[in-house]
């Protein structure tokens, strides 16, 4: 009997590799999101309440002015309670810290009317978080390149990544201090034994 059960289980497992995947269908309860012709959504953050914070290169969303930042309700409609004037350039990354702060990254210098280059913090209602300060900046002889990745770390700091001709890794605390490494090599001070920030494989 055990042998029969084992063989049956193997047959079922093997057949699962050959069975077609369930057909994917659009959710009719989620409203279509309309952007201008050249608008792009670069990133989306799903909040615990089912809403989506989206960032990109758009200037209008569902017929309403929205400069690179907006929040959608769970059904896809624009969330009018997300009160931000947006960013002055593209928003490429959206993430959430444990304290509830929304952090965005991109190629901007101003978010919600507040000067904040490349990385900015937002409150839950979309307004600029005045407690989030950073001196982060990127300099190069070539044109500017946006932040391409944001990773909140357990100690409250952020790992920020960007692609350039000369790669730079930056890890900074949300209170304003930051550390920038030499090209292609991550910061080792003042975190010489930080297992979350290992040396690269070069």
Could you explain how this protein is built, in words?
There is one protein chain. The chain is mainly beta and 202 residues long. It has one domain. The protein has 1 helix and 14 strands. It has a 4-stranded antiparallel beta sheet, with no helix packed on it. The protein starts with a helix and ends in a 22-residue tail after the last strand. Mean pLDDT is 74; it is low at 2-13 and 165-202.
Characteristic key phrases:
single chain; 202 residues; mainly beta; 4-stranded antiparallel beta sheet; 29% strand; disordered C terminus; Beta-propeller uncharacterized protein DUF5122; Delta_60_rpt
Major β-sheet annotation: 4 strands, antiparallel
Radius of gyration: 22 Å
Shape: globular
- Could you state the oligomeric state of the chains shown? single chain
Write the layout of secondary structure elements.
Layout: H1 2-16, E1 41-46, E2 52-56, E3 60-61, E4 64-65, E5 69-72, E6 91-96, E7 102-106, E8 110-111, E9 114-115, E10 119-122, E11 147-152, E12 157-162, E13 168-173, E14 178-180
Antiparallel strand pairs: 1-2, 2-5, 3-4, 6-7, 7-10, 8-9, 11-12, 12-13, 13-14
Concise overview:
The protein is mainly β and 202 residues long. Helices cover 7% and strands 29% of the residues. It is built from one helix and 14 strands, in the order H-E-E-E-E-E-E-E-E-E-E-E-E-E-E.
């Amino acid at each position: 009997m055990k042998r029969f059960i084992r063989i049956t289980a193997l047959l079922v497992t093997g057949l699962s590799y050959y069975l077609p995947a369930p057909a994917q269908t659009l959710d009719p309860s989620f409203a279509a999101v309309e952007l201008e012709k050249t608008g792009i959504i670069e990133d989306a953050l799903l909040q615990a309440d089912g809403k989506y914070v989206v960032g990109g290169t758009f200037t209008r969303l569902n017929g309403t002015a929205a400069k690179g930042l907006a929040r959608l309700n769970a059904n896809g409609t624009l969330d009018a309670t997300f009160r931000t004037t947006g960013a002055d350039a593209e928003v490429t990354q959206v993430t959430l810290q444990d304290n509830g702060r929304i952090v965005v990254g991109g190629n901007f210098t101003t978010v919600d009317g507040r000067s904040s280059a490349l990385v900015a913090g937002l409150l839950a209602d979309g307004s600029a978080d005045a407690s989030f300060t950073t001196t982060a900046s990127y300099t190069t002889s070539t044109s500017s390149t946006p932040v391409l990745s944001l990773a909140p770390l357990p100690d409250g700091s952020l790992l920020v990544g960007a692609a350039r001709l000369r790669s730079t890794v930056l890890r900074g605390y949300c209170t304003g201090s930051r550390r920038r490494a030499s090209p292609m090599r991550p910061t080792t001070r003042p975190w010489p034994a930080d297992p979350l920030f290992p040396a690269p494989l070069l």
